[in-house]
């Protein structure tokens, strides 16, 4: 279990995330939603141990994160930033191999078994010899996800993986994340697409202005009132094949809010 | 398959090239020596003058060339990996300019004439002060941008002060000596220079070579590298300390030799498929090879006065740097 207890985070002297309790168990796909600037990415980075807590704490399987060696955390929690970058012209298999660094001794040899499995899991084996900087957005997203999977982590923290992907690749990615959760991993994903959040996530956390204003099942979080408060939008709702469909429909004016 | 083969054989191949280059470098000069003569001199046989040329002139020059080339290539690769930028050169953080200023101060004060190692020791002191100043200005938890800004500023200050000293120098011979030293050369160095620089370059190189895995992780940015279990702040200071030691010691004994640290990692990067960890040892050997070639060139060029090796590396390096810029622009636009 990856948990945050009354976690608040400040950047440059400004509090970005107000005290919040968050828990991510193994085997669930959880969405972190909220408007731009609501503190989603900051909260995710703090959960990954990349930002210090202003107050409160993050714990991994009951132990405070700062008491666990970095390498051990890296073997259990994988973090995938928004728009992941690769500064050198590395091939896809080399990028995926970087996910094995927390497990490597001084050896330089590629851990080919794990790399192959990770690439196969995201259906990107055919890309293994391609320069990662020459791939399309969808292909890059899958290769970087394979990098995160290469360490076989119990928890995956992923920042806006669906941004910039076409509908086909968005669905492919979300189905993949769902499958990873079914496999027993805990997946916390930052999403802007409320429709994807409603359809694929088992639970949601909704942030507004750095405050966690709701958490729970999608139908309890994606209410008209809460979406009006956090996103300032009206939504169109329907059902398709027994699943609720939600589309942001109109912006709310000040008087409507 | 071919790529794997080329990667597997890259380091041994470079090592062979270095050994051959070193052997040729011992033969080339005002007095051309044959391998046979060299062998005799190395075994303590043959003419005394050839033994003298080998042990007192060629060998110190060769060893210094290898040490300095290694440190420049290695520090260049490490700094490029740390800053994730192929246009970075090892003197970016003010080390070279600081070492230059320190050495020039020694020339100006007249200590250089009184004590043989005053110049390199002054250079090392200058490099140390420059790096400490950069670290103090950038702050302990500073960003890479602050570090670069501080380095550029300290380099500019050191450069300006060096110019002031040259301007104020009343003795034209001293001024000429300062300018010649600043151009960078391996000539007229003794085994004592090698002994002075080798320990610092050795420690610096070990520090830099130990950062390979972290540099590999840094390919994906600082956040991802930290999420992979690396203390990036420690890696950063290890690389700064390592390159300061290696480059500071190198510049202190030879003067500033530009472009080796910039060119070599860039030229070898395709051979290691962009891997910043494999680039470290390759650039170290490559730097030594390049500097030895440049030094052999200054020895065989029929110029009235021997060109300084720093001039040759700059002459060769500038067009390559330009090419690099054009290629980078093409990839951006």
Walk me through this protein's architecture.
The complex is a heterodimer of chains A (257) and B (333). With 257 residues, chain A is α/β, with parallel strands linked by helices. Chain A has nine helices and twelve strands. Chain A has helices at residues 40-47, 70-76, 92-98, 112-121, 137-150, 167-182, 194-200, 218-221, 224-231; strands spanning 2-11, 14-24, 29-34, 55-60, 63-64, 77-80, 155-159, 186-190, 203-208, 211-216, 233-240, 243-251. In chain A, the strands form three sheets. In chain A, strands 6-7-8-3-9-10 form a six-stranded mixed sheet, with helices on both faces. Chain A has a four-stranded antiparallel sheet with strand order 2-1-4-5, with helices on one face. The mean pLDDT of chain A is 91. Chain B has 333 residues and is mostly helical. Chain B has a single domain, classed as ABC transporter involved in vitamin B12 uptake, BtuC, CATH 1.10.3470.10. The mean pLDDT of chain B is 88. The chains are: A alpha/beta (257), B mainly alpha (333).
Helicity range of the residues of chain A? 25-40%
- Could you tell me the number of beta strands of chain B? 0
Order of helices and strands of chain A: EEEHEEHEHHHEHEHEEHHEE
The CATH class of chain A is: Alpha Beta
Q: How many helices of chain B does DSSP assign?
A: 15
**Number of extended strands of chain A:** 12
CATH topology of chain B: ABC transporter involved in vitamin B12 uptake, BtuC
> How confident is the prediction overall: mean pLDDT of chain B?
88
Mean pLDDT of chain A: 91
Terminal Cα span of chain A: 37 Å
Most residues in contact: chain pair:
A-B, 33 and 24 residues
CATH architecture of chain A: 3-Layer(aba) Sandwich
Net shape of chain B: globular
The run of helices and strands of chain B is: HHHHHHHHHHHHHHH
Largest sheet of chain A: 6 strands, mixed
């Amino acid at each position: 279990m990856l948990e945050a207890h009354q976690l608040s985070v400040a950047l440059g002297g400004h509090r970005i995330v107000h005290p919040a309790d968050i828990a991510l168990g193994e085997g669930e796909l959880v969405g972190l939603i909220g408007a731009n600037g609501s503190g989603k990415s900051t909260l995710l980075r703090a959960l990954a141990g990349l930002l210090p807590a202003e107050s409160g704490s993050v714990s991994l399987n009951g132990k405070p994160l700062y008491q666990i060696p970095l390498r051990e955390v890296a073997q259990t929690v994988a973090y995938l930033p928004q728009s992941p970058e690769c500064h050198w012209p590395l091939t896809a298999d080399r990028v995926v191999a970087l996910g094995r660094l927390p497990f490597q001794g001084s050896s330089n040899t590629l851990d080919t078994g794990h790399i192959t499995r990770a690439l196969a899991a995201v259906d990107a084996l055919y890309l293994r010899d391609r320069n990662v900087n020459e791939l399309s957005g969808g292909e890059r997203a899958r290769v970087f996800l394979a990098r995160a999977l290469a360490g076989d982590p119990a928890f995956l923290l992923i920042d806006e993986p669906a941004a910039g992907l076409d509908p086909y690749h968005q669905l492919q990615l979300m189905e993949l994340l769902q499958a990873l959760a079914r496999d027993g991993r805990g997946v916390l994903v930052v999403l802007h697409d409320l429709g994807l959040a409603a359809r694929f996530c088992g639970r949601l956390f909704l942030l507004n202005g750095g405050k966690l204003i709701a958490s729970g099942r999608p139908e309890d979080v994606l209410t008209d009132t809460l979406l009006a408060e956090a996103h300032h939008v009206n939504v169109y709702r329907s059902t398709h094949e027994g699943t609720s469909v939600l589309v942001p429909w109109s912006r709310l004016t000040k008087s409507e809010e | 398959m071919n790529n794997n083969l080329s990667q597997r054989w890259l380091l041994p191949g470079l090592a062979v090239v270095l050994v051959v280059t070193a052997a040729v470098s011992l033969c080339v000069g005002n007095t051309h020596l044959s391998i046979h003569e060299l062998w005799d001199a190395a075994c303590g046989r043959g003419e005394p003058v050839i033994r003298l040329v080998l042990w007192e002139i060629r060998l110190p020059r060769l060893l210094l060339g290898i040490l300095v080339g290694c440190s420049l290539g290695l520090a260049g690769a490490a700094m490029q990996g740390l800053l994730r930028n192929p246009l970075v050169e090892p003197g970016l953080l003010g080390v070279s300019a600081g070492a230059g200023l320190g050495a020039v101060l020694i020339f100006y004060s007249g200590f250089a004439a009184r004590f043989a190692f005053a110049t390199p020791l002054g250079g090392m002191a200058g490099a140390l002060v420059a790096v400490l100043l950069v670290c103090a200005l950038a702050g302990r938890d500073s960003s890479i941008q602050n570090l670069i800004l501080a380095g550029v500023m300290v380099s500019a200050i050191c450069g300006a002060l060096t110019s002031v000293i040259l301007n104020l120098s009343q003795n034209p011979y001293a001024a000429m000596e300062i300018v010649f030293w600043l151009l960078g050369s391996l000539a007229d160095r003794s085994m004592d220079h090698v002994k002075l620089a080798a320990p610092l370059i050795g420690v610096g190189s070990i520090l830099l070579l130990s950062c390979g895995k972290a540099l590999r992780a840094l390919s994906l940015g600082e956040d991802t590298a930290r999420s992979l279990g690396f203390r990036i702040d420690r890696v950063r200071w290890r690389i700064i300390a390592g390159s300061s030691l290696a480059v500071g010691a190198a510049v202190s004994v030879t003067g500033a030799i530009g472009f080796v640290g910039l060119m070599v990692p860039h030229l070898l990067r395709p051979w290691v498929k962009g891997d910043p960890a494999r680039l470290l040892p390759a650039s170290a050997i490559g730097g030594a090879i390049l500097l030895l070639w440049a030094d052999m060139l200054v020895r065989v060029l029929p110029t009235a006065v021997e060109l300084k090796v720093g001039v040759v590396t700059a002459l060769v390096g500038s067009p390559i740097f330009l090419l690099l810029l054009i290629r980078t622009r093409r990839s951006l636009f």
